Amino acid sequence: MDADDVVRLRLSQQQLRHPRAVSAEAALKNLLAVQSQEFPYARWSLAQRTAGASAADVEEAVADGRILRTHILRPTWHFVHRDDLRWLLMLSAPRLHQGNGGMYRQTGIDAEAASRSARILADAVAGGAHKTREQLALELQRHGFAAKGLELAYLIMHAEISGVLTSGIPVRSTGGALKQTYALFDERVPASADGHEHRSEALAELVRRYFLSRGPATVKDCADWSGLTVTDVRLGLGLVLEAEPDVLTAATLDGLDFYFSSAGRGPAAAPGPAAEAEGGPRVDLIQCYDEYVMGYSRSRYFLGGTAPALPERDTPMHVVLSDGRMIGSWRHDLAGGRCELDIRTRSDPGPAGHRAIDKAVTEYGRFLGTPAVRK
Prior knowledge:
Strand content: 15-25%
C-alpha cells in the first residue's frame, strides 16, 4: 500500500466516489457520525455522498428525526442517525461529561443544578413542544437560572449528553435560515434500535463502522475522532477481529499500522486517481469539517494540505480537492437568488482543472436548488 492507495480507498469508503449512498440517511449510517457545526455546509457533506440528494432532502430527514443533530464525540455538533444515537451516547457520555468537567465547575453546574435544569428542560419540550435555544433560556430563567452565555450553552449540552434533549424540527428565522430546536430525547430516539446494550458491543460497533467507512486509518485516528482512549479502540478492534476475522485488513505505511475494509481492496473495488482522471482531474468541494478531513488526526497528512484552518482576513476556509488532495479553499455567498462561490487555488489548475471546478460548482448549485456561479 502506498499514499495513492490511501487516498483512493478513503474516497471510496467515504462514498465520495462510486458506489454512492442511496440517500443522505444511508450516507450517515455508513459514516456513523458527521461533524455538523456549520449546518448549511454539513448538509452538503451528506448529500455529496449520494446519487443526488438535495439540501431539502437533508432538511426533511432532520425535521423527521431520522437524522439528529446533537453534541457528541469530543464533544461537538454531529449528525447521527436516530438508530445509532442511544448506544453511541451510552458509550461516549462518561468521557464527554469528564471532559466538560472544568467548564461545568466554571459555570456553576453541579449535580443539583444539572438535575434541576434537566427536569425543567424535559418538561419544556415534552409532548412534541420543540423549542429554540432562546425559548429554553426563558424557561430556565423563569426557574431562577441566569441561563446566559456559557452557562446556557453547558446546561443544554449537559442535557444532550445525558439523554434528555436532542434536536427537534428546525424552524425558519426571519432571514430564512434554519434554526436548531430541541426535543425530548425519548420522543425522538427509538428505545431499542440496534441492540448494542453492553459497552463491549457498542465499542466493537463503533470501531468496526469507523474503519469500514474511513479506512485506511490508524488506531490513533479512531481514538481522536471518537474521543475514546487508544486502549478502548484497541480493545474494540480486537473484538471485531475476533468476531469477524476477515472484515478488516491491516497494512503498514510510514511506520504506522493502518486498518481498512477487506472488501475495499484492489482497483476493481476502488478506482484510483488515474481511472477517475480519464477525462481530467476530479474536483470535490468539501466543507472544512468534512469527515474526509476530521476523520483523521495522526494520518491527516495524506490530504496534502492544512485543514481545517481558521480563515485569514477574507480567505475561505472550506476545502477544494483535486483527485482527493487539497489544492485550495472555497466558500459560498447566497444573495440575489443565486449562489456565488469564492474558489481559490494555490496555483492555476489548467484548462482541465477549471472544467472540473466548473462541474463541481454546477453540482453544488443543483444541491442547493439555485443557480451557482464562480466569483
